[in-house]
Input
Amino acid sequence: MSDYIIETSGLSVYYGKHRGILDVDLQVERGEVFGFLGPNGAGKTTTQRVLMDVIRPTRGKAHIFGRDCQKEGVAIRERIGYLPGELNLYGEMRAEEFFKMFASLQKNSPDPLYWRSLAERLDLDTKRRIRQFSRGNKQKVGIVMAFMNKPDLLILDEPTSGLDPLVQQTVLELVREANQAGSTVFFSTHILPEAQDVCDRVGIIRNGQLVATERVEDLTTQHFKRIRFNFVTTPLPDAVAEDGVIEISRDEQGITLEIHSHLDQVMQKMASFGITDIETIPVSLEEIFLAYYGKENGGTHV
Amino acid sequence: MFRLFLQELRFRRIAIIGWGLGLCFFPVVYVGLYPSFADQMAGFQEILDLAFYQAMGISMGSFEDYMASTVTNLVPLILCIFAVANGTGTLAGEEDEGRLELIVTLPTPRWQIVAVKAAALVLALLIILSIVAAGAALTLQVISSQIDTNVTPKNVFFSLLGALPLVLAVGMISLFLGAFSPSRRVASVISAVVVLVSYLGNNLSGLIESLEKIGPLFLFHYYKATGEALKKGQSFENLLALSIITLVAFGLAMFFFQRRNITVGAWPWQRAVIQS
Output
């Protein structure tokens, strides 16, 4: 049996003639937190909707728990907590009524004490009608809804969207706790620091195509290096020019380079100028992400 | 599945009560006021014989004809508004509002979702019609001593309930159109056109000989709002025809909802165009 909780192959969705996603091959491993990164319109929501059988793929396959998402969707969804990206609730209901209703429609009725504790942690007043809630509070309702069943898999579409920073942290804590309790988490976001904060691996989707899937630490260490070199005498710009190397800054003590390729050659070349100190500067996921999009937009970084 | 059904009824409860009581007012007024102008009705008959009124299905020669022209003729037509609004609102409306995504991502098969919503629609229409029928029958009971007729309150009650197959057919066609068309607005417009064309087309086909042959194409052809039907009820053939239309529409609703890309809002043929 496959150890992938989510597995798609050649997954493509067209909306008429418009491309939604194209040949997405995705594997999410059991017990990991997988971040699905991409800007608006990249195909994150479409992918998640196919997984939840909300929309059907034009071609390709999607499996969750080793089962076909289209043919065995009911059995799959019994074990999933889902937060849609465009959350529209029953405004006339009180949050409490909504949770009771939603719980009653689940295969295994969730423990009311648990969803009440979730609402409490998110500081959600469950006695109020949903239509009276702000966007952030509605999002909290969606979060409780997704987590209430202690599912084996959480599929969350931009879970921290519309939330204030404190609640965002609480949501990320919930993600970590669910993961520690054995849940696999697949969540989309375009807030990169939060992906870096909680994800084991990330996939980057661009124009409907999955362009990279890597461990967060590999992505941040392997994609490119940012190194500070100090010299006795700082070399002139022309002297350090090299394909795949960008000079980020320079001062009297040395220079900072962004090295995308030929690391060994660059190191040899810098050594020839008499290095006095060397420091690797951490690269954030956000910078990696922008570098990927730099390719698309004709950027000069790579 | 039963819990989902209860929720569906819960969502409709205000509409059911509102429509039931509101529409009940219509026959109560028409039946209740009859004794006060019964004597004047004969004078109107000449005007009501005009083709326009006949096209509207209106004739008032007797209490039976008066009842048939007003109450049993117009109550189903008005209730068709609810059937269209609720039928299209059930799938297409919830999809437009973005709430259907929550329902289809529950561990429930889509066919059950359609079945539950259709069952709730059927029950809602039955309850509304029962309230209206009961109101009309009770009113007739109250005024029966003041009018000369052999129509009984029981006749009126069952005659109005006899409109159920017609409004169910309209409701189910609307449900199907909601599952088929890209939005509730489109489904509502088509459903409303079906109802209006059916109503007027049926009445005209009864008046114009050359249109007689196309009468069976109209839904209202299978529902007789006549003095005779008031006493004897609808024919088995009409009941059967409307039941078949209802079942076919329900089957189509299931078929198209099963294949529908929720949240996309497209015609079925727009769902899968592969770019090579």
Remarks:
- The CA atoms of residues 130 and 138 of chain A lie 7 Å apart.
- The interface with chain B takes residues 12, 14-17, 19, 49, 52-56, 58-59, 73-75, 77-78, 80, 82, 84, 86-90, 101-102, 104-107, 145 of chain A (CB under 8 Å).
- Chain A has eleven helices and 14 strands.
